TrEMBL record:
It comes from Arcanobacterium wilhelmae. Gene3D superfamilies: FAD/NAD(P)-binding domain. InterPro entries: FAD/NAD-bd_sf, FAD/NAD-binding_dom, SQRD. It is an enzyme of class 1 (oxidoreductase). GO terms for molecular function: oxidoreductase activity. The keyword Oxidoreductase applies. It comes from the Bacteria. Its EC number is 1.8.5.-. Keywords: Oxidoreductase. Signal peptide: none annotated. Residues 3-138 form the FAD/NAD(P)-binding domain. This is Sulfide:quinone oxidoreductase.
Length: 410
């Protein structure tokens, strides 16, 4: 029997397994390996510090695999790509004809001096990129009666690069509703040179921070955390009473141990075909790769159909010809019951305009609106019921430029 092996049963691995099952006949065995049987809806981590119950974001992984997909609950410890073999923590080995790496990314606080210890202490430093962290932060936000709140990104890339900004806007709104906003001094601290990465989005998001009297500290390359002080390599020190940090994000340890990735553990991937640049029978989906676009579930979704087409071509002895354009689509919660929407790809930066229909919308790009917020909340049900099972969602995987406003050339 021919074997397709998928490492990771999160957003990307689950979608890939179900979509490939629909394509391959019964001479193919499809196996997904994951370290546990708990699928987390990670976009929910953003809301857990404010109002969402932690239990709402977790469901059994096995509920989401279609018939004909085998699930192995075990941790991958090493891959030997030259031998088409994967080693598991239990001592078991699995072989494959084709491999999809879908093992995502993880926060690694130990990369910053003092950060892991401060998070462990759980007094002034918190994160929401893990479910436990988000639940602890809920209590910390509730207890906080005023002082300096820093929301901080350690380095790029991180998954969902807009989530720290969303958290900042939601925290501002939260303290406003509690009537103590005037006592909470909020600063958004980023290693980037502005609120976001591309000029139009940076301007719009920067204006929103300013409108809400949120300070912005840019080009901050963090060196250490400790004693209520966040320090940068260029000698700046920021005092805080509460720090919400996004630790550095890295690929999984087994990618590093197997020498399959770059220095941060991300697998080098052809940005158009989604095939590994080093092994012809290895494809990569989701955050595990080094594509120059956002690490986001939406990207995994838009790229999944390209991967499926190219993997099927490779299996049939053809060259992979489908090309992913880097399409990313992110809702940005902006507080006050509204959200913005960002839509971009490798070539085109996030612009203002309408989505998905040109000039009609109903969603507005890069402007806060109620309907965008409703779209963000609706995504949870779409995720569980349509995206993971691989049901068609009526959105084109490639980005459309009609209806978008391009900045005038100087
Ligand atoms: C706070 C937050 C908010 C977000 N909001 C959004 C949003 O609004 N929209 C959006 O599109 N995206 C959002 N994301 C990002 C989105 O969740 C991820 O981009 C998406 O889950 C990536 O899918 P993936 O399959 O690549 O990785 P994951 O879903 O993380 O799956 C990776 C899987 O690999 C498994 N794994 C790892 N190591 C091993 C090992 N050694 N052995 C076996 N299994 C292993 C893990 O257990 C996991 O199940 C958000 C993320 C966070 C943290």
């Amino acid at each position: 029997m021919a074997k397709l092996l998928i490492l990771g049963g999160g957003t990307a691995g689950t979608m890939a397994a179900n979509l490939m099952r629909a394509k391959l006949d019964s001479s193919w065995e499809i196996t997904v390996v994951d370290a546990d049987n708990a699928h987390h809806y990670q976009p929910g981590y953003l809301f857990v510090p404010f109002w969402m119950k932690p239990s709402r974001v977790v469901r059994k992984r096995t509920k989401f695999f279609n018939d004909g997909v085998t699930f192995v609950e075990d941790a991958v410890t090493r891959v030997e790509p030259e031998a088409n073999t994967v080693h598991l923590a239990s001592g078991r080995t699995l072989t494959y004809d084709y491999l999809i790496v879908a093992s995502g990314t993880r926060p690694v606080p130990s990369m910053v001096e003092g950060m892991a210890e401060e998070l462990e202490r759980g007094e002034k430093v918190f994160q929401f990129y893990t479910l436990d962290g988000a639940a602890e932060l809920h209590d910390a936000l509730e207890k906080f009666e005023g002082g300096k709140l820093l929301v901080h990104i350690s380095e790029m890339p991180i998954k969902c690069p807009v989530a720290p900004l969303e958290f900042t806007f939601l925290a501002e709104d939260y303290y406003r509703k509690r009537g103590i906003r005037h006592k909470v001094d909020i600063t958004f601290v980023t290693p980037l040179d502005g609120a976001f990465t591309k000029p139009v989005a940076t301007r719009e998001l920067g204006n929103m921070l300013e409108d809400r009297s949120i300070r912005l500290t840019t080009d901050f390359q963090v060196e250490s955390v400790g004693d209520g002080v966040l320090a940068s390599y260029d000698g700046r020190e920021l005092d805080f009473d509460l720090l919400v940090t996004i630790p550095p994000n890295m690929g999984q340890q087994f990618i590093i141990d197997s020498r399959m990735g770059d220095a941060s553990g991300f697998v080098e991937t052809d940005k158009h075909t989604l095939r590994s640049v080093r092994w012809e029978n290895v494809f990569v989906l989701g955050d595990a790769g080094n594509l120059p676009t956002s690490k986001a579930g939406a990207v995994a979704h838009f790229s999944a159909e390209i991967l499926v087409e190219n993997l099927c071509a490779a299996i049939n002895g053809k060259e992979p010809e489908a090309s992913f354009d880097g399409h990313a689509n992110c809702f940005v919660e902006s507080g006050r019951g509204q959200a913005m929407l960002l839509d971009f790809n490798y070539e085109t930066q996030p612009l203002t305009g309408t989505f998905p229909l040109p000039f009609v919308g109903p969603m507005r790009l890069l402007k806060p609106s109620r309907i965008n917020h409703m779209g963000k909340l609706a995504f949870e049900q779409i995720y569980w019921n349509m995206l993971l099972p691989g049901r068609p969602i009526p959105l084109p995987s490639a980005m459309m430029t009609a209806g978008k406003k391009f900045p005038k050339e100087d």
